[in-house]
Amino acid sequence: MAGLIFRLIAKAWRRRRAGADDDGDEDPHAALVARVRRRRQLENLYAKYLVYARILLLVLGYAWLAALASPWLGRGTYIDENALQPGQVLTKWGWDDVHAADRYLESLDALHARNASKAELTAWVKDEFAKLGISSSTQRYAFSTATGSVNGTNTYAVFPAPRSSGAEAMVISASWLSRIDEGAGAINQRGVPTVLALARFLTNYSYWAKDLVFVISDGYLDGMQAWLNAYHGLPQSNLVAEPLELSSGVIWTALNIDYPGHSFSHLGLFFDGLNGRLPNQDLMNSVAMITSHTGGVPVVLYDHIEQPFSLSRHHGKADWHVKVLKELHTYQLRARNILRHFGYEVVGRPSGVHGLFHQFRIDAITVFAVPAVGPHGFHSLGKLVESSLRTMNNLLERLHASFFLYLMAGPHAFLKIGHYLPCAIILSIAITLTGLGVWRQAGWTEYDEWDAEVEYKAALEQTTKESPAPVLVTEKTFVPRKRQRAVMEPLGVMLATHAIGVLLLFAMRFPSFYNTITIAASYIGLVLVAPPPLKNGLRSTGGRAPFHTVLHAFTLLSAGMVISIIAVLNFALAASLAAVLALPFVSVSPQSHRLFKIGLAALCAPAFVNPGFAKNVVREYELLGGWFLPFVCVVYVPIVLQSWMAAVLYI
């Protein structure tokens, strides 16, 4: 039956095609004429409704971006990988282990009290590992950067798995510097003793199916970067590091411990990785579940302590009023988490030592003990770390079932990629459609002055003899004409701006650059807002489209393309770029008000650069291989320079 229906449909289609061929024999140009007419109709509709489409897309994109923190968007977290079984083990961490951690802390405090050197601290950690019967070693390293040299010594130990061949491994780490103020100098006072106490406790049991690797990295991020590069045999041009004497299998998961205070009230989860990478969500969800149930510790995202909504403060108010206030309170909490996430993801900065593992396809997070007077300490932290490690020990393969692309709104709430990605894509579509509209506009003149004058004279001559006087035509008839769009000149300017970006990337690697960075940026602005004779020389004349109009179209199209491409790689960067550029880029046109164009030129002008921020970005680029600096220099700065030039020439 299905075959008969298919044959009938095919026969009808062949007859219809044959009829179309017969009609074509009668009028060979009919199809071409109809095609041209349809194309012109579509172009006219596009030009007619482009303004409304842009406004609609801008409103929808910005509204969606603002709605990301809404409690109505997203869903609660859950575990996808059945093999994990979080919180299903009976923890054995006890008060004897807490006492051991206290002894390690006393020894470390004594070393700090007499201002022990890095070499003494490293030797002490290595000796403590050796006393436990675990193979340990050290690794010295040195980075050379534009902002100065960075050196240190890492200490690590490897406990082979009793029940396997050592093909896989887990890492338990702590850095000497805490992540407080992004590694500004606060000591991870209890993080290092926690790792030593865990090494003493965990090596007493034989149920481990993966090697346990304990790492005490020097500094904040630099030590772990050197250790990971050496572990995976990855060379780095500005790094000189000793090879590792001890090795293990493929690292699947890692847990970094940051405990800078004497006690803590909440456990914060840090998950943002280098260059916007994220761990598998199952790891985060498992640790969050274990922290809440096994450890009995309130879990938060980052170090944001969430104050619960107080009903007593709103006693006597209407139910709908209380409900609205509660929704606004939830929105505020979620917005704070999302903005913190954006702050790390936009610049590609890891929120902790764990973020360096993601580049090697290792799922890792940092558990941060939020400093407080109490009530939790070594006992609670040890229980939840033990349970988390035993959960990771259950894995038979790498984590893959859950999400790698997500947006965390809270410790137990997240947004899928389909919930947050459209806002950046919608804004990029608005920019792209505007670019296509400017490109179409560049191909047509609004009127041809010579033809309009001819039409004016012809209208005067067409007077009847019955008229006592000639008919006066008060308005000219404007005839649209096609004009040539120069492509090579705008492309040359675009290549020149990208070349400037490459030179800027290399220049920022020299220390002397930071003393003159404001002067150099101001010089670029002086060149771009050149005197009127120079601007007039750049304008196209005759029957060609204006230079700046074509440049404006190409800039809009390239900006929309860039935002769409990086939206999946780094959504926070794409959304921030779209939010900053969409409104000014879409609003500028030849008909825009002069003051608005001047304001846009001032807004887009990179006239001032913060030297301190620039130094941090360069440091992360040279130490960690961050992508933010190359992106800004080679992509963002050229786009801004092109749009700035187009806006100035529109004036």
List keywords for this structure.
single chain; 651 residues; alpha/beta; Aminopeptidase; 3 domains; globular; membrane; Gaa1; Gaa1-domain-containing protein
Q: How would you concisely characterize the structure shown here?
A:
The chain has 651 residues and is α/β, with parallel strands linked by helices. The protein is 52% helix and 13% strand.
Residues in β-strands, percent? 5-15%
Taken together, the total number of domains comes to 3
Number of helices: 19
Broad structural category: alpha/beta
Helix content: 40-55%
| CATH fold topology of the largest domain | Aminopeptidase
| Poorly predicted regions | 448-460, 463-467, 469-477, 528-534
Number of strands: 14
Strand order, biggest sheet? 6-2-3-5-4-7-10-8-9
- The first-level CATH class of the largest domain is given as Alpha Beta
Q: Note the gap between the termini.
A: 70 Å
Q: Biggest sheet, open or closed, and with what strands and sense?
A: 9 strands, mixed
Query: How large is the radius of gyration?
Result: 33 Å
Question: Roughly what is the average pLDDT, rounded to an integer?
Answer: 82
Based on the structure given, which CATH architecture of the largest domain is correct?
A: 3-Layer(aba) Sandwich
The shape, in one word, is globular
Transmembrane segments: 45-65, 420-439, 487-506, 513-530, 550-583, 595-614, 626-650
Protein name: Gaa1-domain-containing protein
Pfam families: Gaa1
Keywords: Membrane, Transmembrane, Transmembrane helix
